[in-house]
Amino acid sequence: MSGRERILGRVRRALADVAPDDRPYGEAVPRDYLREHGRRTVEETVELLAENLADYRAVVHRGTEDRLPALIGRLLAERGSREVLVPAGLPPAWTAAADAVRVDDRAADTPQRLDRVDSVVTGCAVAVAETGTIVLDGSPDQGRRRISLVPDHHICVVRVPDQVVSSVPQALERLDPGRPLTWISGPSATSDIELDRVEGVHGPRTLEVILLG
Amino acid sequence: MRVALFLTCVNDTLYPDTGRAVVKLLTRLGVDVDFPMGQSCCGQAHYNTGYRHEAEPLARHFSDVFREYDAIVTPSGSCGAMVRELYPRMGERARAEGRGDGLARTLAPVVPKTYELTEFLVDVLGVTDVGAHYPHKVTYHPTCHGLRGLGLGDRPRRLLRAVRGLELVELPGAEECCGFGGTFALKNAEVSAAMGADKVRNAESTGAEVLCAADNSCLMHLGGTMSRLRTGMRPVHIAEILASTEEEPAV
Amino acid sequence: MTGTFVGMPAFPKAAHDAVHDPTLRGNLRHATHTIRAKRARAVGELSDWAALREAGRRIKDHTLRHLDRYLLQLEESVTAAGGTVHWAADADEANRIVARLVRETGESEVVKVKSMATQEIGLNEALEAEGIRAYETDLAELIVQLGEDRPSHILVPAIHRNRGEIRDIFRKEMGRWGRPAPDDLTDTPAELAEAARLHLREKFLRAKVGISGANFMVAETGTLVVVESEGNGRMCLTLPETLISVVGIEKVVPAWRDLEVFLQTLPRSSTAERMNPYTSMWTGTTDEDGPRAFHLVLLDNGRTDTLADRVGRQALRCIRCSACLNVCPVYERAGGHAYGSVYPGPIGAILSPQLRGTASEIDASLPYASSLCGACYEVCPVAIDIPEVLVHLRERVVEGGPAVRQGNKVVLRPAKGHAAERAAMRAARWAFGHPGALRAGQRLASRTRRLHPRTLPGPGRAWSGTRDLPAVPAEPFRDWWQRTRGGKDGAE
Q1: How far apart, in whole angstroms, are the C-alpha atoms of residue C162 and residue C23?
Q2: Which residue from B203, C76, C275, C366 has the least number of CB within 10 angstroms?
C-alpha cells in the first residue's frame, strides 16, 4: 500500500466514530472578528502605516512623483551605493537621478552576483497599516523574490493611499495566491538571543519605505 | 434559601478553623447555613491524577448529599471548579463511552448551584463589605482554579479592600501558579518546591505579614514552604479574614 | 549532529538538573518573562482577540473533521501549480523520500529552514547517514547545531543559552563548519547576529537544495506559508534550485481566507509582534523566480493516531506559536530538555505522548509534568484545552484502554509503577464513600497529633523534603459542627 492510501485510510478510520458534519465550509466558521481595527480616515490609515513601519525600524520617507527621482538618488548616495538592482518594470524615471550603476534583474545572474550589489529599489503590491507590512508579489515593478533579499539595502516605494489597506484581512483580499508573495515588516530581525528582538540578520538590514503620494 | 456548606475533605480534616469562619461569616450575613454530615470529597484528586472512574462514585455521592439545597458554598476554588467545570465533563465522557445519560443527569442539578465563597458573597448575597475588621498587612494570591477555572476575577480583592484596618499590597507575579497542583506536588516535588519558593519570595518582597488565598490546598503548600524557609509570614484563608471582627478578631 | 532524546529518563528526574542550575533558571526566567509581558501587550491591541481565537479553533476543527478531503484537494492544487506531492506515513518513510530527492539532484549538502517536522523525524541525522550534510540556518538552530546540543523551545530552540554562552559556542565551533567567528566577537546580540550572517551567507549563496517545513498549507490554492524573522527562510525558499518541504498533515487549512485569522494570531502569540519580519507564500513553482522543482512531503508520523482520540485530537490544532511554553511555570523551572522531545512545554506534554505513545518512561511521565494551572489554555490562540488533554492522558497511563498506534486499534495496559498509587486512590475512594470510616480516620489523626513528625520518611519526603506538614487540629470540623450544632450552642 502506498503512503498516500495508508494515510488517507488512517484518517478515515480515525474519524469513523465522529458525528457527520455536512455543513459547508462557509458556515462552519464564525467570522465575527473585525475586518479592520478602529475607524480611520484615509490620511489616518497612511499615518498609521508610517508609524508602524517606523516602530519596527523601517526608515520612512514621503515623496511626490516629481521629487521621487531626487529622493531615491539621495538615499542611494547617502548609503554610498555603487550598484542598484532594478526590476524590469520599475518606472525608469525613479532611478534616473541616481549615480549608482543600474543592474537589471535577470534570471541568469547568480546569487553571488546579487550579493555584490549594494541596493535594490522596488514597488509593492499592497501595504498593511495595522501591522506596518509591505507585500511584494513579483509584479514587473517588484521583480524576482531574491532581489529584495540578497542586497543589504532595500528601498520600497508604496503608492499612497491606493496601495494601502488597514488590515491583514483586507490585504489578503487584494492579493493573488497564485503569485509568489513576500510579506515584509521592517528589516530582518531575530528574537533568538534571550527572546529579545535584534534587527539585522540575513535579509536587508536597512529597509527604507517611500510613501509616494 | 437553603444553603449548604461544602467544606471539602482537606478543610474538614486539616483546617476546621476555615469552616468555622465560613459559618460565622455567613451567619453574620443572615444566611442559615447547613453542613450536611454525609459529605466527603468531590473526587478532584482522583480525577486530576487520571482516576476518573474512581472519581465517579464520589461525584454521585456529592450530588446525593447536596442536590436538595438551593446553593452549595465552598471555600475552595479548586473543589468548586471540580464541580462546576469537570462534573459536566465527566457526564459527557460517560455518555461518549456508551454508558448512557445516567451520570450526566445525576450530576447536572448540583453544577449551577455550586459557588465558591467569594462568588457567593459578591454575586448571590450582593455584598463586598462584610463588616470585617483585620488590622494587618495582607497580600493576596489568586489560586489557579479560582482565577482561570471559575473566573473569580477581582471579587476576592474587592472583599479584602472593604475590610477595615486591612492594608492590601499587590503580590508580584500574582497570577503565576504556586506549584501545589494536587499530586503534582508529590510527583514533581522538585519543580513544585521551586515554584513554591519563588511564590513565597514574591510574597515576602511585599512586606506583608499575611499571605491570603481562597484555597487551603495551595496555602498548605505555601505555608509549609514559608515555615521551612522561616519567613515569618502566615498563610491565612480569606474566610478567616472576612469572618474577623473587632469584637471577635481572628487570631 | 545534534544530541538525541532517545532513552530519556522520566520527567521529574530529567528536570532535576535544570531546577538546581541557577544559570539556566536565570536564562529561562529572563527570556520567558520578557516575552510574556510583550505578548500580553500585542494581544491586547486587538479588541477582537476572542473572536479570532474562536475562528482559529473552528477552522482547525473543521479541517481535521474533513482532513482526508482537504489533503486530496491540497494535493491536486499543489500538483496543478507544478509541485510534486509525496506521502510519508512515518519518520522513516519521510526521511527515505527526502534523501532520495536530494540524491537525485546530485548534491551532498542542503540548507534548512527551521522546521519542527524535520526535527521530529530526525532528518538531519538520516541525511548524515546518507552522506548528505544539512546546515541549519535559523540562528537558534545554528546555536544548537554548533553546540551539539538539543533544542529546548519550539520557537527559540537555544533559549537555554544566554548571550555569553552563545559567543563561546560561535568562537569555538564556527570554524569547523565554515567561516569562523571573528576573534574579537563580543556577546552583544547585534554582533552575534552579524557573525551568523557572515557564517551562513556563503552557504546560502551556493546552496542548490533547500529544505523547509511550513506553517500553513492552503488546500484551495495549493499555497504554502512560512512565517519567519531572520530572512534565512527566504534564502532557503528562493535561492536553491530544488525545494523540499516536509509538513505535518494537520497544517492544512481549507481556504486562502483562513490565513486572515492565523496571520493575526500567530505572530502576536509567538514573538509578540504585530507581524513577524518576513512571511513567504508560494504556490508550486514560478517561472524564473525561485526553485525550479518543488516537492511537498506530507507527514503523518502519529498524527492520525492522535486524530483518532476524541479528547486528544484537539492537540492537532496547534500552530506551534509556543505561547504556552513561555507562560508555563513548570517549563520555566524544568527547562525544555526535561520534556525529552522536540516539542517541550505544555503542548509537548500532550503531543509527544500522543505522537509517540505512552510506552516509554519519559512519555508516560509527561502528562504529569503540569500543575494544571491552566495558563497554557488561556494563552493558546487556537484554544487547545491542554489541562483537559493532560488529565485524559494521565487516565490512559494509569488505566490503559483503547487507543490507536500506527493506524491500528490496540488496547493499552496500565503503565507500570502506578500500583501503589492506584491502591491508595481506591482506598481513599472507599473511605470517602463511607463517612464513618473517614471520620474514624480523622479522629485517629487528631488524637495522635502530638506524635506527628514535621517531616516524613520514605515517599513522604517528596512533600516534607522542602515543606513542613500542617499541624493536625484537635478535632475535625464535623466533630465541632456536631458538638455545637454549627456554633449555635455557643460553645467554641
Answers
A1: 9
A2: C76
Domain count, chain A: 1
B159 contacts C298 by C-beta, under 8 angstroms: no
Beta strand C223-228 with C216-218 is antiparallel
* A180 → closest Cβ in C229, C278, C289: C289
Contact A185 C278 (CB under 8 A): yes
Residue finishing a domain among B124, B158, B176: B124
**What CATH number did the domain enclosing A109 receive?**
3.40.50.10420
Q: Is residue B172 a part of any domain in this protein?
A: yes
Is residue A53 a part of any domain in this protein?
yes
- Beta-bridged to residue C278, according to DSSP, are A184, C228
Record: contact C372-B47, CB cut-off 8 A: no
In a domain, A147, yes or no: yes
Asked if residue B129 belongs to a domain, the reply is no
Would B249 be classed as within a structural domain?
Answer: no
* Structure confidence at residue A38 (pLDDT): 94
Q: Is the pTM of this model over 0.90?
A: yes
Q: C407-464: per-residue pLDDT in tens? A: 999 999 998 878 888 888 888 888 888 877 778 888 888 888 877 777 777 777 888 8
* Minimal CA separation from C161 to chain B, in Å: 20
- Written as nine digits, the cell of A156 is 520600497
Amino acid identity at C442: Q
Cβ neighbors of A185 (< 8 A, separation 6 or more) are A56, A131, A132, A133, A134, C273, C274, C275, C276, C277, C278
| Number of structural domains in chain B | 2
**Chain C stretch 289-328, residues whose beta carbon is closer than 8 A to a beta carbon of chain B:** 310-311
When CB atoms are compared, the residue of A21, A107, A188 closest to C231 is A188
Residue B72: give the domain boundaries. 3-124
Task: Name the DSSP letter for residue B133.
Answer: B
Which candidate from A185, A195, A201 shows the least CB-CB separation from C31? A195
Per residue in A89-134, pLDDT (tens digit) is 999 999 999 999 999 999 999 999 999 999 999 999 999 999 999 9
- Measured distance CA(B251)–CA(B240) in Å, rounded: 9
Question: Is C281–A183 a contact, with Cβ atoms under 8 angstroms apart?
Answer: yes
Tracing cell 495522635 back to the chain, one arrives at C448
Asked if A189's CB is within 8 angstroms of C163's CB, the reply is no
> Would residue A3 count as lying in a domain?
no
Q: Where are the alpha helices (DSSP H) in B97-231?
A: 102-107, 117-119, 144, 155-161, 184-187, 189-205, 216-229
pLDDT at C485: 82
Angle between the N-to-C axes of helices C22-44 and C11-19, in degrees from 0 to 180, rounded to the nearest 10: 100
3-state secondary structure chain C: CCCCCCCCCCHHHHHHHHHCCHHHHHHHHHHHHHHHHHHHHHHHCCCCHHHHHHHHHHHHHHHHHCHHHHHHHHHHHHHHCCCEEEEECCHHHHHHHHHHHHHHHCCCEEEECCCHHHHHCCHHHHHHHCCCEEEECCHHHHHHHHCCCCCCCCCCCCCCCCHHHHHHHHHHHHHHHCCCCCCCCCCCHHHHHHHHHHHHHHHHHHCCEEEECCCEEECCCCEEEEEECCCHHHHHHHCCCEEEEEEEHHHEECCHHHHHHHHHHHHHHHCCCCCCCEEEEEECCECCECCCEEEEEEECCCHHHHHCCCCHHHHHHCCCCCHHHHHCHHHHHHCCHHHCCCCCHHHHHHHHHHHCCCCCHHHHHHHHCCCCCCHHHHHCCCCCCHHHHHHHHHHHHHHCEEEEECCEEEEECCCCCCHHHHHHHHHHHHHHHCHHHHHHHHHHHHHCHHHCCCCCCHHHHHHHCCCCCCCCCCCCHHHHHHHHCCCCCCCC
Q: Which residues of chain C have pLDDT under 70?
A: 1-4, 6, 490-492
Residues with Cβ within 8 Å of C65's Cβ and at least 6 positions away in sequence, in order, are A15, A18, A21
